[in-house]
Amino acid sequence: MAEHGQEEIVIRGSRFICTIERVQTEEEAKDFIQRIKKEHWKATHNCSAYLIGDTDEIQRAHDDGEPSGTAGVPMLEVLKKNELHYVAAVVTRYFGGTKLGAGGLIRAYSKSVSTALRSIGIVERSLQLPIACRVSYSASGKLENQLLQSAYALLDTSYTDTVTFSVGVPTPQAEEFQSEYINFMNGNISFSIGEEQYVERLLSNKDEEDDFEDEEFDD
Fold first, then answer.
1. 112: how many CB neighbours lie within 10 A of its CB?
2. 125 — phi, psi (to 5°)?
3. Which DSSP category does 171 fall into?
4. Which residue(s) pair with 11 in the sheet?
5. Which residues of the chain have pLDDT under 50?
6. For the chain, which domains are there?
7. Burial class (CB in 10 A: 0-12, 13-18, 19+), 179
8. Spatial separation of the C-alpha atoms in residues 168 and 132, rounded to whole Å
9. Residue 131: which H helix or E strand, with range?
10. SS3 of 148, please?
11. H/E/C letters for each residue in 32-95?
12. What pLDDT is recorded for position 4?
């Protein structure tokens, strides 16, 4: 997930407010959920779901008074479908007077989370080496164009007596990257490698937007 955020949708008069936050531990997730519950203490429900761990070792979902399986689990499934990790979501519902039925609730809570994710954005986080690529000013345009068209993350550009492009390269691909660009620049390039770090790259949301305009919500 790109950042913390919140998004609201309205379905059949009910307000669904999804708040999503990055968390590193289950304790952080629980604290986040309690904070949202205190903020929206007048709400009808504050349903929640979170994933903790590189392989989602900890998975939790809570319906907070909605019929069993209609809120927390659908929320959790949206997080899993988007391959998110270390993230918690709370969907706050202010009841608008129209019951949605079990199927309608599942769709509504799923919709709330997926809409928030589309608004906030999803990032891919990978362990990479920052490689500084130095070239002359006359060669900088050629290198920059190639980097922008590549799958590598262009982290920074600096200008001194030469032009230096800092590029995030997945650690296993570091040697291949250098060889590729030495050939591409006909040897007119030099490299220096920094310390390994996590780099984030913005992705499009993997979850397709659902159309609720024509959905039937049974009482």
1. 28
2. -110, 120
3. G
4. 14
5. 206-216, 218-219
6. 5-120 (3.30.230.30), 124-202 (3.30.70.240)
7. exposed
8. 9
9. strand 122-135
10. helix
11. HHHHHHHHCCCCCEEEEEEEECCCCCEEEEECCCCCCCCCHHHHHHHHHHCCCCCEEEEEEEEC
12. 84
